[in-house]
Specification:
It is a single chain. The chain is mainly alpha-helical. The protein folds into 2 domains: 18-73; 74-122. The chain contains 6 helices and no strands. The relative contact order is 0.08.
């Protein structure tokens, strides 16, 4: 069973954080430009999504004009992650091809020694 002492420890370790207005405006602009999603900001800065939606309500340019916007479109961050995954895949394929080339070169060297012929020249 939890004791009162346990709760007091947790509350003393938790620190209230305050984000500047300029920081909030910057993050709202990034969301509006689809550079990042609400979930990504929430995870990166450990802020609740509710707080971020409040920022959007307060600082969004589109909100003031009555324009509605879909917030969770494909972001550049996700595109970047997909591209990095593709790079890893291509690097792995390149490594395999390099291994094949080295294997074939070694086979040619062995054949040249066995048959005493200069295969690479021919």
């Amino acid at each position: 069973m939890a004791k009162l002492q346990d709760f007091s420890k947790e509350s003393s370790q938790r620190v209230n954080r305050y984000f500047s207005e300029s920081f909030k405006r910057k993050k709202v602009r990034e969301i509006e430009k689809n550079l990042v999603t609400v979930a990504e900001i929430s995870k990166e800065y450990e802020v609740s999504t509710t707080a971020i939606y409040k920022w959007l309500d307060k600082y969004s340019r589109n909100r003031k004009r009555g324009v509605k916007q879909v917030v969770e479109l494909m972001s550049d961050t996700r595109k970047l992650q997909d591209l990095k995954a593709r790079i890893r895949e291509l690097e792995q394929m390149l490594g395999q091809k390099q291994f094949e080339i080295e294997f074939k070169d070694k086979m040619i060297d062995i054949a040249e020694e066995m048959y005493d012929i200069d295969i690479k020249k021919n």
